[in-house]
Amino acid sequence: MQKFIASFAVAISGVVFALRTQSHMRFHALAGLIACVVGLIVSLEPLEWAIILLAIAVVISAEMINTAVEQAVNLASPSIHPVAKVAKDVAAGAVLIAAVISAIIGLLILGPPLWRLFAG
After folding, report:
1. Sign of CA dihedral 16, 21, 25, 31
2. How far apart, in Å, are the Cα atoms of 14 and each of 25, 28, 67?
3. Cα(115)–Cα(96) distance, rounded to whole angstroms?
4. Domain count within the chain
5. Contact 102, 59 (CB under 8 A)
6. Choosing from 45, 48, 63, 70, which is the catalytic residue?
7. Cα separations (Å) of 66 from 60, 63, 88, 118?
8. pLDDT value at position 54?
9. CATH number at residue 93
10. How far, in Å, CA of 118 to CA of 86, rounded?
11. Distances from the Cα of 4 to the Cαs of 7, 11, 44, in angstroms?
12. What is the 3-state secondary structure (H, E, C) of 63-113?
């Protein structure tokens, strides 16, 4: 059980590091929180919650993996080697794709009930 708790603490420190040092991570976390508040306001169904939460988790996970790649590349290649740049660019691209698709998912799920709320 101590090993599990230690692993959990290490993982939490990774989340805290990403939140503390990465402005995009803070932006994604805030966007996820806003999506959850809106979901509460419009009373999402369980399946809709599952999709929204999965989208949030994918973006935040991608951002954390991007942070890990950046840190490892910075350590291995302090000067920008072309291959190091590609690794960083690809990791950032993964975050971009996850964020864009998540925004579309958010619009598809949260858009109609918000529209009804404000239009009616």
Report:
1. positive
2. 12, 16, 10
3. 26
4. 1
5. yes
6. 63
7. 10, 5, 7, 37
8. 98
9. 1.10.287.3610
10. 45
11. 5, 11, 34
12. HHHHHHHHHHHHHHCCCCCHHHHHHHHHHHHHHHHHHHHHHHHHHHHHHHH
Domain residues for the domain of 35 are: 2-119
Which one, of 102, 7, 111, 114, lies nearest residue 52 by Cα?
A: 102
The question of whether 45 is a catalytic residue gets the answer no
Tokens found for residue 98: 């996850």
Q: Which two tokens stand for residue 85?
A: 């740049």
pLDDT tens, residue order, the chain (120 aa): 888 899 999 999 999 999 999 999 999 999 999 999 999 999 999 999 999 999 999 999 999 999 999 999 999 988 888 999 999 999 999 999 999 999 999 999 999 999 998 887
